[in-house]
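Hey, resending since the last one bounced:
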Amino acid sequence: MRVAQAGSLESCDALITVREQPEGSGVKISIEGTSKYRFGEHIRKLIEEALYSLGEKDIEVQVQDNGALDPTLRARLETAILRLRRGEGK
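The structure tokens again:
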């Protein structure tokens, strides 16, 4: 199972890790970090919408958020997925 990451644990950023999942597994999203309790549902919805627009159906996404803005979260997710698909993961 391939894994890829994008981002950092710095303030106002997020570290996003994506893992391939077997076909038919669906999407699994976990969110940790300083913004989880206040913005967790918003972050989850943003990630779900981005995955849908990218055509991702079987993937696990871990978000370690430290106050990243929406465009940063989306960019980190897109970069991690691109790395995963290119085989540039861990």
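The beta strands are 3-7, 14-20, 27-33, 59-65.

Sorry for the duplicate.
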